[in-house]
Amino acid sequence: MKTASVSAEAVPAAEEAADAARWLTEEEQHIWRSYVHATTLLEDHLDRQLQRDAGMPHVYYGLLVGLAEAPQRRLRMTQLAEKSKITRSRLSHAIARLEKNGWVRREDCADDKRGQFAVLTDAGVEILERTAPGHVTAVRQAVFERLTPQQQEALGEIMQIVAEGLQPSDAGADLPWLR
User: What are phi and psi of 107, to 5 degrees?
Assistant: First the structure.
């Protein structure tokens, strides 16, 4: 296995950073690893359900839902990337696949020659209508049926706090949807 070479000057700085790190406690490690394990399993579970029922990954389903909820079932590509929290490159690839299936089409932006809209087609609405019941069932069984109402409320509050803390507010932030 290859390892990256590190200059002699960088080693003390890395060791100082490691020494200064506020390591997770054993309980925090357990919580963190449980979270990572659960979210990985949940994403896989939802991907498998959507692949089986509609031949698409979860991220594509999210794009279709985002368009379905938009006025006139259309969003600028940059808005859709931001809403979906994915890079413009990944979005472009996904939209190309969704176009190939006839579920989305692109339209040029009349007031901005470089801009484009993604538009949900009638066929896209139909696939969502066919797929949504199975998807909701998968989400309900995987998450909500396993939690008490109090746990559901706590989970919602916790995820809102985490999301708000991670949402950059400065204009120069390195955001995936701007890449």
Answer: -130, 140
Quick check: 79 and 155 in contact, CB under 8 A?
no
Sheet architecture: strand order including 104-109: 74-76, 112-120, 104-109
pLDDT tens readout for residues 117-175 = 999 999 999 999 999 999 999 999 999 999 999 999 999 999 999 988 887 776 666 66
For tokens 């995987």, name the residue: 142
Q: How distant, in Å, are the alpha carbons of 80, 95, 97 from that of 72? A: 14, 17, 21
Q: Which two tokens stand for residue 43?
A: 């994403």
Q: What is the DSSP letter of 24?
A: P
The b/e string for 8-32 (b: 16+ C-beta within 10 A; e otherwise) is eeeeeeeeeeeeeeeeeeeeeeeee
Beta bridge partners of 120: 104
